[in-house]
């Protein structure tokens, strides 16, 4: 049950609310208690003042044998209130007058306990009262105790202490009422809040439930389906949006993979079909001349080579995609590598009477993976020669611009149509799709430029088609001097 966010949210919400209510109750209780006590002290202080005024006034008019006692009695009678006790003590702390009746049967003046003024608590209060004008304290007794106010005064040359006690009963009753009220208000509020909290949590999490059941239904077969977005501006809308974005990317990657697989199998089918056809035809006759066997083997060898190249290219791209093609950089001279590649491609160029020249470059030290750069350069040279008609020209140059080299391979071929230029770096893309793979023109599988671009990017550089028109094309590879820190392939 606690595994449900709804329940956990409700419990948290209820717990926090209960804590807030309890704290609120404690604060209210304390503030109330303090304010009642302050008011009571002010009342007692005023009452003691009025009492003494009465005592002094009565003393002036007294004709009785004990004028002080008579005056005090008068004052007690005049200021008689419910829940109040008066006591006048002489300088020795002996009670000379009081409002508590000694005889409980005749307890007309007060409803307070008769032995209140003899109690230890009262004695302690009187002895601890300083000589100052007023002193407040608590005296135990009765149901809830008393708030006590002591006041020194002199009459007829003697000093006395007036003590007024006021029962804390009404105040305790009031506080009890407050406590009782909170005691039923808090549980009801918590009950209502937990019900409301559960309802709200359920309502707010409903889209999550809908999203999770929809997400559970999405698989490879229906990857185009998306999660419902109720309000794209709120948090859940953002979540659904992000999830849908993830599905978009996954679907795109799935499509790419599917296309890649389809294209790869398509590319592999042709050489395999040729291998099979050629071998079947050769084997169909019992006896063949050595010359015929040789021709067949040449075809088989050529196709096997082509197959090997495609499989190697596919393997390179797959490893590059998985980030598992570690660069092996070392220091060498780029101009020497270019000269070497140009030399290797010379035979191909000569076969087509193409003039292949390297304009030469000053010493160009570089820190990079030599075999990968060689592969890239041979790919570009191979393309330049392949797509340039007989008697054309291919010019290779290398320039240093700041911290990078720009290696350009320009040809005088037929160029690439403008609408196809953005796609030439795509895998398996061939501008001239009509050209059959089986033709002996050396036409590749359309992977050469993809691999070359990856090689440039793996060296933190880039490969661009700098120019292409009817007079020819120029491919330029930009390579940082220190390309030894591999970048992840894009
Ligand atoms: P391929 O194996 O077909 O050469 P690439 O990836 O190397 O594949 O090249 C992709 C396509 O780009 C080629 O099929 C070709 O149409 C076009 N292309 C590449 N280089 C050149 C070039 N120098 N001149 C004209 N077209 C080119």
Summarize the structure.
The protein is α+β, with helices and mostly antiparallel strands and 490 residues long. The protein has 9 helices and 12 strands.
Q: Report the total helices.
A: 9
CATH class of the largest domain: Alpha Beta
CATH architecture verdict of the largest domain: 2-Layer Sandwich
Quickly give the structural class: alpha+beta
Largest sheet: 5 strands, antiparallel
What is the overall shape? rod-shaped
Radius of gyration: 53 Å
The end-to-end span amounts to 46 Å
Overall residue-averaged pLDDT value: 87
DSSP summary, beta strand count = 12
The H-and-E topology, N to C, reads as: HHEEHEEEHHHEHEEHEEHEE
Percent range of helical residues? 40-55%
Residue share in β-strands: 15-25%
Strand order of the largest sheet: 2-1-5-4-3
Low-confidence stretches: 103-110, 434-440
CATH superfamily of the largest domain: PAS domain
Predict the CATH topology of the largest domain: Beta-Lactamase
User: Which ligands, by name, code or SMILES, are bound?
Assistant: adenosine-5'-diphosphate
């Amino acid at each position: 049950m606690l595994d449900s966010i709804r329940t956990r949210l409700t419990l948290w919400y209820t717990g926090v609310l209960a804590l807030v209510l309890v704290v609120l109750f404690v604060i209210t209780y304390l503030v109330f208690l303090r304010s009642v006590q302050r008011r009571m002290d002010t009342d007692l202080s005023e009452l003691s003042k009025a009492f003494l005024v009465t005592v002094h006034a009565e003393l002036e008019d007294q004709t009785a044998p004990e004028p002080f006692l008579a005056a005090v009695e008068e004052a007690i009678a005049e200021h008689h209130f419910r829940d109040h006790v008066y006591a006048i003590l002489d300088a020795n702390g002996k009670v000379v007058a009081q409002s508590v009746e000694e005889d409980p049967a005749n307890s007309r003046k007060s409803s307070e306990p008769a032995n209140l003024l003899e109690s230890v608590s009262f004695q302690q209060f009187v002895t601890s009262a300083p000589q100052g004008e007023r002193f407040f304290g608590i005296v135990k007794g009765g149901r809830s105790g008393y708030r006590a106010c002591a006041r020194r005064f002199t009459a007829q040359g003697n000093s006395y202490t007036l003590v007024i006690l006021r029962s804390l009963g009404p105040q305790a009753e009031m506080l009890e009422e407050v406590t009782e009220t909170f005691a039923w208000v808090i549980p009801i509020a918590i009950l209502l809040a937990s019900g409301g909290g559960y309802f709200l949590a359920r309502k707010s999490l409903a889209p999550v439930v809908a999203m999770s059941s929809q997400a559970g239904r999405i698989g490879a077969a229906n990857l185009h389906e998306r999660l419902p977005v109720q309000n794209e501006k709120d948090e859940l809308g953002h979540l659904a949006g992000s999830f849908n974005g993830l599905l978009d990317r996954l679907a795109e990657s799935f499509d790419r993979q599917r296309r890649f697989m389809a294209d790869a199998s398509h590319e592999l089918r042709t050489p395999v079909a040729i291998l099979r056809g050629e071998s079947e035809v050769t084997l169909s006759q019992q006896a063949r001349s050595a010359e015929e066997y040789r021709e067949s083997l040449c075809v088989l060898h050529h196709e096997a080579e082509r197959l090997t190249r495609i499989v190697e290219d596919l393997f390179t791209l797959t490893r590059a995609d998985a980030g598992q093609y570690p660069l092996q950089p070392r220091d060498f001279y780029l101009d020497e590598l270019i000269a070497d590649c140009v030399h290797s491609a010379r035979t191909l160029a000569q076969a087509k009477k193409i003039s292949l020249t390297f304009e030469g470059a000053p010493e160009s030290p570089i820190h990079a993976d030599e075999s990968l750069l060689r592969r890239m350069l041979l790919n570009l040279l191979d393309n330049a020669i392949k797509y340039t008609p007989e008697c054309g020209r291919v010019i290779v140059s290398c320039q240093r611009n700041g911290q990078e080299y720009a290696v350009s391979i320009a040809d005088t071929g037929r160029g690439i149509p403008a609408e196809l230029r953005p796609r030439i770096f795509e895998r398996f893309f061939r501008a001239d799709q009509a050209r059959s793979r089986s033709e002996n023109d050396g036409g590749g599988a359309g992977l050469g430029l993809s691999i070359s671009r990856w090689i440039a990017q793996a060296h933190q550089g880039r490969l661009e088609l700098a120019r292409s028109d009817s007079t020819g094309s120029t491919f330029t590879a930009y390579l940082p001097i220190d390309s030894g820190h591999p970048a992840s392939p894009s």
